[in-house]
Protein 1
Amino acid sequence: MKSKSIKRMLASILMAFEAFIVFFATLAGFGLKVADGPVVWAVGLTLSFLLIATPAVLGRKGSYAFGWVLQAAIIGIGFWLVAMFYIGGVFACMYAWAMIAGGTIDKARLAFERANGGLGQTENVEVFEIEIDEK
């Protein structure tokens, strides 16, 4: 069984959650009338759709770079809805963490599997019982 990439899983979770945040920001932008209604909906729903669809292609060439483009676009929304500077900045930092930590975990797992002859986590597991004396 092939082990899944932690980097991909972290980025997927982050982008799925971020899609909801962008959708709610779209509602806020529409309510505050930061631009024409159709423009707000077109930009917001397009970004939300891209954030939901991108995890399907993560792991392919250029897909993580496309994630960075989406992060920059979300920060760019801050010119119309100032709170998105902060929210987009927080998500960009979390995306950076997902890329760094996920990549590190994937490399460590690969090194562990190579050092142990490809053993998975379920193999070579010891089972023990703890007995408690009741007085």
Protein 2
Amino acid sequence: MFDYHATQKTLQIGSVRIGGAPGRVPTVLIPSIFYTKDRLVKNADVGEINQSATEKHLAMLADLTERTGLGTMLDVVATTTKAMEKYLEFLVERTDFPLLIDGSDSLEVNTAGIRYANDGGFLDRVVINSLTPDTNDSLFRIVRETGLSNAILLAFNSASMSSSTKRVEIAETLIQKAKSAGVTNILIDTGVMDLATLGIACKTQHMLKDKFGYPVGNGAHNAISTWKGLVPKFGREAKKPAMVGSSLMPVALGADFVLIGPLKNAALVYPSVAMIDVALSGMLIEERIRPEKPHPRYLVN
């Protein structure tokens, strides 16, 4: 079912392993923190947060990670350079998770995050999210100058909205640019905007694993946040199962990571994805292959 032509790459980013044949390495889940309207944030301009509430959320996430065996990274969202630096300062001292620098497409905010991590000596723990077809060449230069080795490549633009082939072409171009900038740990986000593009994204992730072998995934939760008819037609009670289902689809189809949206959703998503990981590992039994520990197979049954 998951026979690929390319050798599947398993990467080590901080404390997290990611990539490889489905069922062998635990799926990596990436919740977002400090996003727009996140209740943990008191002042988004200066990066002021509710520290005690944030620590409770981080403890919950660490507990879910340990109990399921899944990998965890954090998508750190900021809209100003000051906020990005404050968020990273807080998180790097209180968690061991790899941290995604998500400056909302701002060159200044992303640059500030990378430089802060470099100056603070934890550059190996951060991942730029993301390098896109529209990324300013200045950011690629910052990546090279600092020696940042971890990046998510967003293989998506308006021209590839309904084409998996075009997304693969975009990925190929971005892979070459990222390599030229010194990136060695490449993750590829196949791009989700709505329900229809979730299907295209999952098709693309299979094509990319087959051609290049890099870890792939997407922000499947975007399909739910843009589903205008969900609550009016089916009620608010339909929103949570739809959100969980959106994250399960790419995993069942071979994704190595999923950006699951707000951190508050983690308690719902982690057990469900762990269930899928156990099922995928079962597909390898006939080949006498067992996943290495820790893995959901040994923890959630």
Protein 3
Amino acid sequence: MSTTGDAEPSGAALTGWARSAEESPGREFSDPAFLDHVADRLAALPTVRAVALGGSRAQGTDGPDSDWDLAVYYRGPFDPADLRAVGWEGEVSEIGGWGGGVFNGGAWLAIDGRRVDVHYRDLDVVERELAEAEEGRFHVEPLLFHLAGIPSYLLVAELAVNHVLRGDLPRPAAYPDRLRTTAAERWHGTARATLAYAKANHATKGRLTEVAGAIGTAAAQAAHGVLAARGEWVTNEKRLLERAGLRGVDGIIETMCTASGPGVMVQALVAVESLLEKKAH
């Protein structure tokens, strides 16, 4: 991400970040030694109290090309300049550089021939959202690359599934019962509203792009609801539809795009509504 605090990195910056990792002439460390090395350096940054491994490597779904997702949990002011001073190649955002909110910034780095994402996590915010989740309360924030946005309890999901490498972090005992109810109800309600708006305002006008976008967004929203009702934590949207059993939405979109027109779009929205309702009960 940009060191100027812009919410979106440039295409050239992303390409350079990936190339710098992939074109490294060799690796100094084995994977375990690499993780120890990076965790030690991050844990030594001022105000950092803990470091955790997340993403596919924490959940055992990583492949040979998977990047490394690490979070630094800090107490009090955190200065990204301290992370830049380590000297790793890449881009380091300011606090709030990824749009603000609970997902408040981080870095995209190339370290020892590996792609590394570092996420900033304010412990005061994390502890607040943990308490809110226990009471069944949360909010949804927009985030780049996420169709449905992210629920604030994503921070709690990370505490539940990530691996703490340095320091100590609070752990949710289980998926809160109140959150299972409130999150499922809210996500499914939002999905219904998204489809209803598309049906009333876009489908009848033949706006294919808007209808397809609404279907994708509603499917992601409903998937959050399905997994919340099951008490399954979500940390991103990458496998959200598969986990919720909603990959069938693909076929509806394909049919709509093959034979477009207002009537076909309305039928597609009705079909998606039916599919999502089955998963909501």
